[in-house]
Backbone:
């Protein structure tokens, strides 16, 4: 599995500490704010709907078997103002999702940003202070 | 106590500040639009960084009833499991809160449950205010909620009147501050992590524009003697963005379900 666990950084702590309550359920209760990961896979589906967008993407595990990950974005309403559309990700797109892992160990990540194969970077997670530090 | 600012501590600091600077004597400003003799709060606002030292914020904080704990989840922060921002739930309420499971929220039947205005007002979503003399409307993007604040001098209805997630809100002006009093709230979350308020919850909000008229600050003071042993408040800030508008929210309960 092309999953890279990245060491906690001061920068990340600064970003995570300021993350906003983006919708009905809380970041803080679902995700680990002081760990960041990169997960690479291929988009299966993309739901651009409130309360949160969800990227379903297939990741090849260490055993060679595919695992479907969920990348949870903040509210599409906020992403629309940041340039995302419901066509920002298409099935078959190869992506790397950078974000924060689920507390329960399930294959789920809160999306900080997504990098597509052509280098396009989609910023997802923001705070009331904006996206400072993410790019 | 990290993350908790007691009202008394804040008050002491503010009192010192007043002594030195006369900080609460806010200067009148021609930049604040006015309507019917009051500041005109009308406009589109989006959440912005909260500066607790801004004069308008300090003024609002100084008016929070003594003893209320500061809840730092206004806007940019959320509490982790089992942290309630200094609020002290009654024992039975705490026991219920501790049973709460985050995974339950992701179920189709729960995912689009609306919060009450107590939680919704602090979420990082825009709102648009339309101010009339007898009524102020707050169109909130979060869950497509639309608040009506009666400014015509009426009181709250009888105790037995229906309780809703928006509650019943009446407002009045105190100088340049809009004060909104809300009762008749349907039980719902306070902190989005298991702690709920009862139908006896009472919310008092104060709204004040910055001197340049570009930032709207507010506090929400929460008391709920049925569920809480103490009281608390949040501080919020919104930046005015002329020309923008509210988007529909239209929550989709199947957002987390992979297509077959």
Residues:
């Amino acid at each position: 599995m092309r999953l890279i666990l990245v060491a906690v950084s001061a920068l990340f702590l600064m970003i995570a500490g300021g993350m906003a309550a983006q919708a009905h359920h809380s970041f803080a209760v679902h995700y680990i704010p002081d760990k960041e990961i990169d997960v690479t896979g291929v988009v299966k589906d993309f739901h651009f709907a409130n309360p949160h967008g969800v990227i379903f993407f297939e990741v090849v595990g260490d055993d060679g078997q595919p695992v479907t990950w969920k990348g949870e974005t903040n509210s599409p309403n906020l992403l629309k103002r940041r340039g995302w559309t419901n066509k920002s990700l298409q099935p078959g797109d190869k992506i790397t999702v950078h974000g924060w892992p689920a507390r329960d160990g399930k294959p789920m990540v809160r999306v900080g940003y997504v990098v597509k194969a052509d280098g396009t970077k989609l910023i997802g997670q923001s705070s009331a202070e904006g996206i400072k530090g993410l790019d | 106590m990290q993350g908790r600012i007691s009202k008394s501590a804040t008050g002491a600091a503010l009192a010192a500040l007043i002594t030195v600077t006369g900080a609460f004597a806010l200067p009148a400003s021609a930049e604040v639009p006015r309507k019917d003799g009051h500041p005109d709060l009308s406009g589109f606002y989006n959440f912005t960084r909260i500066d607790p030292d801004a004069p308008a914020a300090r003024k609002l904080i100084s008016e929070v009833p003594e003893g209320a704990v500061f809840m730092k989840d206004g806007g940019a922060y959320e509490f982790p499991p089992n942290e309630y921002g200094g609020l002290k739930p009654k024992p039975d309420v705490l026991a219920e809160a501790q049973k709460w499971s985050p995974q339950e929220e992701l179920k189709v039947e729960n995912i689009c449950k609306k919060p009450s205005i107590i939680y919704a007002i602090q979420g990082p979503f825009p709102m648009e205010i339309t101010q009339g003399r007898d009524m102020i409307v707050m169109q909130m993007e979060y869950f497509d909620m639309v608040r009506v604040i009666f400014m015509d001098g009426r009181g709250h209805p009888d105790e037995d009147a229906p309780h809703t997630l928006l509650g019943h809100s009446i407002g009045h002006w105190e100088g340049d501050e809009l004060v909104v009093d809300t009762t008749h709230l349907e039980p719902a979350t306070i902190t989005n992590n298991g702690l709920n308020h009862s139908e006896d919850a009472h919310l008092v909000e104060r709204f004040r524009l910055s001197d340049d008229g570009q930032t709207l600050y507010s506090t929400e003071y929460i008391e709920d003697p049925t569920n809480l042993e103490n009281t608390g408040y949040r501080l919020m800030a919104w930046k005015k963005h002329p020309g923008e508008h509210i988007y529909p929210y239209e929550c989709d309960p199947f957002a987390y379900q992979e297509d077959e």
Remarks:
- The longest strand of chain A covers residues 36-47.
